[in-house]
# Entry
Amino acid sequence: MPGTLPAVSFVDPNGGFFDPAAENDEHPGPGPGIRAGQSFVAGDASLILAYQLIAAKLNIDNGSNPAPISSTITDADGDLDGGTIPQGVAASSTLGQDMTADASILDSYNSSLLTPMCTGPR
# Structure
């Protein structure tokens, strides 16, 4: 039936944006599958930032030290301005560059690179 999702979907929040070598999404079916969706995500800086911002806020709620990224979270919240996601912000635009810079910092935080006492996904 057209328009239905497969029984199993794989999602890679990185999507290869920060490190193409780390992209590990392999859709088990024929056709472009998830890869087609990744090109959509990779082009919208608001989605890239939202994924990392949500993860960072969940990490903070789980007890991670917010100090290394408090100003980044403030900037990221301001960039998204409470809008609906996706916002269709080109990563190459001025706002998009700010969003992806914030997302990169948050990605480092979410990967435990800015909080050496925390252990994250390894």
